[in-house]
Amino acid sequence: MSERLASFDKDPSLRGIPNRKLINLYEKWAHGNFGMLLTGNVIVHPTHLEGGGNMVVCQENDTPELRSWFKKLAEAMKSNGSLAVAQISDAGINTPSSIDQSPWAPSDRCKETHQKPNSDAHVLTEEEIETLVIPRYVYAAKFLYECGFDGIELHSAPISLLSHFLSAEMNNRNDSYGGSIVRRMKIFEELESNIRAALPEDIKFLIGVKIHKNLFLKDNKLMKKECKMAARMFDKLGYDFIEATGSSGLVGYRGNKDNNLIDQDYNDYIDEFKKLPHNYTLYLTGKFREAKKMVDALEDGGVQGIGLGRPATAEPDIADKILSGKVKTAKPNALDEETAVVQVMAAASQIWDIAQTPYNPDDSLSSGIVDFSNEALAGNFKNELMKYMRKSAEMELRLEPAVGIFHFRP
């Protein structure tokens, strides 16, 4: 999820600096008893943001102040024993035109499919991939290691440059970075090897990847063979973990026998990654709400962890509540059947609530968070969100970036 709480400035070198709000947010999650905490987008290019307010790590904005804040962030994330992992990303063609009108794209098809008003994406050459793209990820990974993070996750789910390299639908290159799944994964091979080479040999620094079911669809059909080959390659390349997401059903992996609720392609995609003998840790993220469903996914074999996103914005201590047996399911959410955009924006508003006050061991971690289990309140949120989105769309057409998140005030 995207926090959009960092600095934003017309000067790209002043963008993406963390602050006290981000420290508050992650220190509270740290005391929620999660095994690993993942940041939202940490962008590796100063103008390829997913949105104004993303954290940014690149040579252009590297200062003692930036390093100081990222060190504080890592310390906050690790303050109760969690691993601190930063999700690093380039938004590619999903960058708002108001922020960059010539973002990077891996291919013409990708550019044509996602063409935006006032934007003309630049299709990368092989040389640019090797000399411009890969070094940015390496720089960010090394920076984050030096600031105390335990690892990085390459954001390769939708709304990221890397996802469009991996996607058969979006990547129609005819060189060494396109075509077969092996070639489409070449950039992942080079990222892993170059990041490892930039770090001390005797340290343990996690390198993971977030992927999505839709990257393995072609003509709306799941390519199981490509899923299997991708799993083998990620394992062979030495990736430490894979976060697999992408359910479009109302429940997560093997969540319900009712065919109207499950996404069978998602189940099949996960099966290809879990049934292969592997050294990577496999995390499943998406639509998990009930503790029993989480346990079932783990006991089925091949899956080592469950990722929680939106449930953790409603209850920052949901992991502790489940592990201690205090609750058997996440808090109900009246927006769970709304579009992904509505759900994500609601979670972002809750993130804003969490970030307003420092961690206090005497207070509930859920104190001050808007409760979307209230249907009337959820309805009001949708109405206000539509107004915000119309205003944001108008600003985008005027090339005025919408900075930060929509904060709903009941």
UniProtKB/TrEMBL annotation:
Molecular-function GO term, any one: FMN binding
Biased composition regions of type Basic and acidic residues, renumbered to the chain: 108-120
Organism of derivation: Diploscapter pachys
Keyword tags: Flavoprotein, Oxidoreductase
UniProt name for this protein: NADH:flavin oxidoreductase/NADH oxidase N-terminal domain-containing protein
Region feature Disordered, mapped onto this chain: 94-120
InterPro entries: Aldolase_TIM, NADH_flavin_oxidoreductase, OxRdtase_FMN_N
Keyword check for Oxidoreductase: yes
Pfam families per record: Oxidored_FMN
SUPFAM superfamilies (alphabetical): FMN-linked oxidoreductases
Sequence ranges assigned to domain NADH:flavin oxidoreductase/NADH oxidase N-terminal in this UniProt record: 21-325
